[in-house]
Write a structure and sequence with these properties.
alpha+beta, single chain, about 575 residues
Length: about 575
């Protein structure tokens, strides 16, 4: 592939979504920066053109540098010596190329050296990079931790740290510990205030820290002595220049080999508070994790794209029984399903990113002036949509990445099991996506309240009123029937008033909601661009209808006396 952006027309389609005009208007504050920065956009068309050009540059670097280095990085991996991490040689080349192209601090304001991009085109860049090397994507995309510092740090911290990230320094978020994985309330890394030096000191161990030897770290630590829950945790900024943190080891992982996953030892490390005390988990990590989950959704879509590319190329080239295997219905079915899940998952990803863009832009404006009543209403609407869609985007796309990379190997047959084919690396890299930044099971926990409070159902009913083409109308009617089954199953579970039943059925209801949402989105895309999405819409609705019926059968025929079978 010569360019990982221009050769995927679906990306440019999503960049030109009608909602982008409002996003640009908010992000650019009615294009006020054009008076101060000669590279700031003059208007909406100029902004989209700017995003398009940067995406093209990203696609070119991805093809010429990152993809070219992917196999060697996977084999070499990072090195550990004297408490420090040294990246693989290919990773260093990748970072150098991205920094020289100015692709760091992309979403940050121009006054800090950023590009002031919305989340949506930045997320596209993250997808593009992940399609070539998901491990490197982790290192590069962790720059979005700066969003949390920008949102909750003070002006002094902004001026000292944000320009460094925009200039190419790296970041990490240090959350998990040996005894605190998904349960972050159990974090015990100790933060004590050093009166003599007017700073905080951090002591303890962090584990499974992606890019753990980064330049700047956001650290979750226990600042309130005697506490053992989330109310005693605060967020801190640790600067590697100050020392005090050593890398004990780099984990030996199944995949994403280029990304160093580290165990860190904090020894009286100097740090400073980010935001207010006691809000580290309750407020700041929630914001940080939502951004990270959108990033993993993008990584997952990139991996699905890579799986589709590899499977399609092999199926066209490989001949059996006198013809290319793509001509066999069993293989064509796998390829069509991979593409349908890719297109539907990507539609969900960018719908979520656009929701995030609007509410975050309005949040930022609220720090400058009072929002109008209409803006407050808009902010509330899109914040809720973003919060409800994020666990769908992360959970479903990570599951699809695993399914699609599995099927990619299946298309390759015996060759797919050989290490010289890229599909095995893509498959190994995909496995982590449904685990880190919150397992799929935790995405269900995050989403289920939107099932039971009717939010997803209301969104689905709103989608039913979005005009569609004549070709898509029969599909739309089928999705309405799927939504009726989702509503009926939800009511059955709620009416039972049994918490064990509720917890067991949550995954089924979550997936029903998700496939209905994605069916609507792919129908909307096929209406606007049938040449890109009509085939995927038909395949995906067939798939989603079967999935809905499977869950409907399970939920509607389940008896509470069977619950004992699910307790171990």
């Amino acid at each position: 592939m010569d360019n990982f952006y221009t050769e995927i027309p679906e990306l440019r389609y999503h960049l030109n979504n009608p909602l982008m005009e409002r996003i640009c208007e908010l992000k650019e504050r009615n294009y006020r920066d054009k008076e101060e920065y000669d590279y700031a956009p003059q208007d909406y068309a100029d902004a989209i053109d700017s995003y398009d050009k940067v995406l093209e540059i990203t696609g070119e670097i991805t093809a010429e540098v990152i993809a070219a280095n992917a196999e060697s990085v996977d084999q070499e991996g990072p090195h550990h010596a004297d408490g420090r991490v040294e990246y693989a040689s290919g990773t260093k080349q990748n970072l150098d190329a991205m920094v020289k192209a100015g692709l760091n601090g992309m979403t940050m304001p121009r006054r800090f050296g950023g590009l002031n991009f919305p989340i949506t085109p930045y997320t596209m860049c993250a997808e593009i990079v992940a399609a070539a090397d998901a491990g490197f994507g982790n290192i590069w995309s962790l720059q979005d931790c700066i969003e949390t510092l920008y949102e909750f740090g003070n002006e002094d911290q902004h001026s000292r740290f944000i320009p460094r990230i925009c200039a190419g320094e790296t970041m990490s978020m240090d959350l998990t510990e040996p005894d605190a994985g998904s349960d972050l309330q159990s974090v015990m890394l100790k933060a004590t205030y050093d009166e003599a030096n007017n700073c905080w000191r951090l002591n303890g161990v962090k584990r499974f820290i992606t890019n753990g030897d980064a330049n700047l770290h956001l650290v979750l630590a226990r600042s309130e002595e005697g506490t053992r829950d989330g109310r005693g945790l605060s967020m801190f900024i640790y600067d590697k220049r100050d020392g005090g943190v050593d890398v004990r080891r780099i984990e030996n992982k199944l995949g994403i080999h280029g990304s160093p996953t580290c165990e860190l030892v904090y020894k009286n490390a100097r740090a400073e508070l980010c935001g207010d005390r006691k809000l580290g988990l309750i407020k700041y990590v929630m914001a940080l994790m939502n951004g990270a989950r959108l990033g993993i959704a993008a990584q997952s879509v990139g991996l699905s794209q890579a799986a589709y590319n590899e499977a399609m190329a092999y199926a066209k080239d490989r001949r059996q029984f006198g013809k290319a295997i793509i001509e066999f219905p069993a293989v064509a079915d796998m390829l069509s399903t991979i593409k349908a899940k890719l297109d539907a998952g990507r539609a969900l990803l960018y719908q979520t990113a656009r929701y995030v863009d609007i509410y975050k832009a309005l949040d930022d404006i609220a720090r400058e002036r009072k929002l109008t009543p209409e803006e407050r209403q808009e902010q509330k609407k899109y914040a809720k949509l973003a919060d409800s869609f994020t666990p769908l985007a992360k959970g479903m796309n990570s599951e699809y990445a695993n399914q699609n990379t599995y099927d990619c190997i299946q298309v390759h047959g015996g060759s797919g099991f050989m290490m010289e084919y890229a599909c095995q690396r893509i498959y190994r890299d995909a496995r982590i996506t449904s685990i880190y930044e919150g397992t799929t099971q935790l995405q269900v926990v995050a989403a289920i309240r939107y099932v039971t409070n009717g939010s997803y159902l209301a969104t689905l009913r709103d989608f039913e009123n979005v005009p569609c083409s004549d070709e898509m109308k029969p599909l739309l009617e089928r999705v309405k029937a799927m939504t009726d089954k989702f509503e009926a199953c939800t009511n059955l579970v709620k009416e039972a008033q049994n918490q064990d039943l509720h917890d067991l059925m949550a995954r089924h209801l979550y997936e029903m909601a998700a496939v209905c949402v994605m069916s609507h989105l792919i129908i909307q895309d096929a209406t606007r661009a049938p040449e890109l999405f009509a085939q995927s819409a038909k395949v995906y609705v067939n798939y989603a209808e079967a999935e809905t019926e499977k869950h409907n059968t399970f939920v509607s025929r389940f008896h509470t006396d069977e619950l004992a079978c699910y307790r171990k």
